[in-house]
Amino acid sequence: MKRLLLLTLLLLPATLLAKIPDEEDIKRKTMDSASPYYFTTLMLRYNNLEQLTEEEYHYLYYGYAYQDSYKPTATNNAADQLYASLMTLNVENPDKEEMNHIISLCNQSLMNDPFSPTALNMLVFAYGALGDKQKEEAYHRHHQGILKTIKSSGDGRSDKYPLHILMFSHAVDVLSSMGLSSKRPEIISRSVQYIPLVEPMRVPDGKIKGYYFDYSRIYRRKPDGVKLEKKRTWQFNNLGVKQYN
User: What pTM was estimated for this model as a whole?
Assistant: First the structure.
């Protein structure tokens, strides 16, 4: 019976297994102080590096879109400095002072983008290089939890079932975590962008030439003077996602 159930799940279309964000449900539960998914409580636990469930990551990530602190079009200078630092980072022989600098930049960057997969992944690397196993594993859980939340929001293979993101950079981070190199994003509608892959990915039913992402939350509260345009995205390929046994 268990084998039959597993086979059935494997044969189901990915879209049926996707956890597409239900905006009314997310808004109601994350803004209700009596809810187990109350955003303030979840964020406190997240910042305290506590272990969260898949459901908690889901409500935390998408619930952020309803917080006053969510300003996806704001300039994140710390993130720019972090990306610049990564270009000269000695991955094979990291320096302690350099790692502390990376940690400082990551923490500053997370103040504007608390779920940045890049910043979280770099914290995993930096704390691992410094020998702080507890924080290394805690940030690894957060990193994987955020990536899984985005990846489970759709199959990304069509504009009907896109992957839902809070920041443009998160889309490239997701693709990088899958070992995929991408080309320049293409805006195809007021809510969806398409990111073509450098090399199509072979799958059992054919090839995937690119992925679709829903970016609608980014411009839901569009500030005056902001135009809908292709944003600069970053990709750091020299340092892969850390894996644990």
Answer: 0.85
